[in-house]
Specification:
The structure holds 2 protein chains of 2 kinds. Chain A contains 6 helices and 5 strands; from the N terminus they run H-H-E-H-E-H-E-E-H-E-H. Chain A is α+β, with helices and mostly antiparallel strands. Among the domains of chain A are: 41 residues; 112 residues, 2-Layer Sandwich (Fusion Protein Consisting Of Minor Coat Protein, Glycine Rich Linker, Tola, And A His Tag, Chain: A, Domain 2). A 3-stranded antiparallel sheet of chain A has the order 4-3-5. In chain A, strand 1, helix 3 and strand 2 form a beta-alpha-beta unit. By secondary structure, chain B is mostly helical. Chain B is built from 8 helices and no strands. The model of chain B has no long low-confidence stretch (mean pLDDT 86). Classes of the chains: A alpha+beta, B mainly alpha. Chains A and B meet through helix 1 and helix 2 of A and helix 1, helix 2, helix 4, helix 6 and helix 7 of B.
């Protein structure tokens, strides 16, 4: 009886009962099992978590260690006030003399018609037989000459049309530039950088820049593919001047259409149009869903 | 989902670890209490059948070892033991007059039964306080993690100058997972606490009833002898 009492007292005082230790083990197994079931059995078709969406503005230069900020933000610099032009009061230039109007010729005086003036008899011109001059060049040469002239005329017309088109384009560009200057950026006070940037350089992340650049060159109709869950990994080596030196597919998506479209986009992106800090190897993953969803 | 946990900040990770500990221990207590209470209820029922089927205490005393997990059997053991002690004293009374001989047997046995009841109640209620603590504090701990995570997210928004959904959503999602896990730890703990408290109260009632019955029998025996 005494031993039984002592045993009960000890059990009451102990921090962890022997039975509870086993249950702790069972609970631990349950907690480990739950995530495994979550990942495999309960949600087998769950798509993997998509990577963070990066927005890269191709205007800002790519840097190695971008700072935290917005890629599309406007790089604000202190505007230098334009040098004031001292206006010297100059005497107004004398206007060029107006050309004198040409003197009006004196009107011809009317000649009184003499009455009963007989008209002079018309001289009779005898038609002489026309003698055709012998052509200096042959018929074929003439035709060739005409054709050449026509070609020249066409060319001239095309050049004129092209000039007119260019002028129109320039005018439109100037109009767009003027309009964009008027539009105020909604993020003008935000720092330029990458959303996940941790460095201290002003600019966008090089990798994101390259991905965005290639994505912009990428052309593929969404109707050409019946799945959106495709992903390919490509290693790209760009030189310091931003030229593509080498590329290789680290992992293909397995879909011929998507892979070939990606290859075309990479080949179109031979020149980044921006110099890089150094020759860099980029390991870029292209996700079809991301690329299609891009506005 | 696991990426969210891995991407979270250190404070949120610490909060998640604390909540995981709470959940782990809570479930262990729930399982343990379930087995203990179930055994106590079943063995008590069997013991009552056994007790009323026997006419003598000594016969019950011989078979009581089979009901190790029943609180009623423990009560009987304590009371019967006390009775035997009193009987020994009454057979061999001391010359000077021991204080036990002067006291009422029923009172002494009743005291022993009350002590046993208290001891059994403590045994049955052990660890239930942890469930109550988990149920009441886990949501708040989770909420703390969420608030901290959202603070962090807003700090990031301020740093990047961007308030688009792509920037705001991951931070808030990371933060909200702390509240979700806090609730996931608290809900079973509260349910378990209420369930076991009810079962323990039922057993305490049974113990009180049994004590009264036992004392009545002792009283009758005293008066009959």
């Amino acid at each position: 009886m005494e031993s039984s009492r002592k045993q009960r007292w000890r059990q009451l005082q102990s921090a962890v009962d022997p039975g509870l230790r086993w249950m702790l083990l069972v609970s631990l197994l349950l907690h480990l099992l739950l995530p495994i079931l979550y990942q495999t059995l309960w949600f087998p078709t769950k798509e993997r978590v998509r990577p963070t969406v990066y927005r890269v503005n191709l205007v800002n230069k790519p840097v190695k260690n971008p700072q935290a900020g917005r890629p599309e933000a406007v790089l604000t610099k202190k505007k230098k006030s334009p040098p004031k032009v001292k206006l010297k009061s100059k005497p107004p230039k004398p206007l060029p003399p107006k050309p004198k109007p040409p003197k009006a010729k004196p009107k011809a005086k009317p000649v009184p018609v003499k009455a009963k003036s007989r008209p002079a008899p018309k001289p009779v011109i005898k038609s002489k037989p026309v003698v055709k001059p012998k052509p200096a060049v042959s018929e074929a040469q003439e035709t060739a000459l005409q054709r050449r002239l026509q070609q020249l005329r066409d060319k001239q017309r095309q050049e004129q049309a092209e000039k007119a088109r260019q002028a129109k384009l320039d005018m439109l560009r100037a109009a767009v530039a003027a309009e964009s200057r008027q539009v105020e950026s909604p993020v003008r006070n935000a720092p330029v950088g990458s959303v996940t940037g941790k460095g201290d350089q002003v600019g966008v992340d090089e990798r994101d820049y390259v991905r965005e650049f290639i994505t912009q060159q990428w052309r593929l109709s969404r109707y050409q593919l019946n799945t959106r869950n495709l992903e390919a990994e490509v290693v790209l080596v760009y030189s310091t001047s931003g030229k593509l030196l080498h590329y290789r597919f680290e992992r293909k998506s397995g879909n011929e259409v998507f892979d070939s479209s990606l290859l075309r986009a990479i080949l179109k992106s031979k020149d980044l149009g921006q110099p890089l800090q150094q020759q860099t190897e980029f390991d870029v993953t292209f996700n079809l869903k991301d690329m299609l969803d891009k506005p | 989902m696991f990426d969210l946990v891995l991407q979270a900040g250190p404070v949120v990770k610490l909060v998640l670890l604390i909540l995981l500990y709470f959940s782990l221990v809570s479930w262990a207590i729930i399982f343990y209490k379930f087995t203990v209470v179930q055994k106590a209820i079943k063995e008590s029922e069997r013991f009552l059948d056994f007790f009323w089927s026997k006419k003598r205490f000594d016969l019950v005393g011989q078979g009581v070892k089979e009901f190790a997990n029943s609180p009623l059997a423990t009560l009987f053991r304590e009371g019967y033991h006390e009775m035997l002690q009193l009987k020994k004293k009454s057979v061999e009374p001391s010359d000077n007059g021991d204080f036990l001989t002067r006291m009422d047997t029923t009172e002494i046995v009743g005291r022993a039964l009350r002590r046993a009841t208290t001891q059994e109640t403590h045994r049955l209620e052990k660890y239930l306080t942890f469930l109550a603590t988990t149920g009441s504090t886990a949501p708040f701990i989770g909420l703390f993690g969420t608030v901290w995570g959202i603070m962090d997210a807003f700090h990031g928004i301020g740093k990047t100058g961007s308030a688009s959904l792509a920037v705001v959503a991951p931070g808030i999602s990371e933060a909200l997972i702390a509240t979700a896990i806090g609730l996931a730890a608290a809900i079973p703990a509260v349910m378990g606490y209420n369930h076991f408290l009810n079962k323990v109260n039922v057993l305490i009632g049974e113990m009180d009833n049994f004590s009264q019955e036992f004392l009545n029998i002792v009283e009758r025996m005293e008066r009959g002898s």
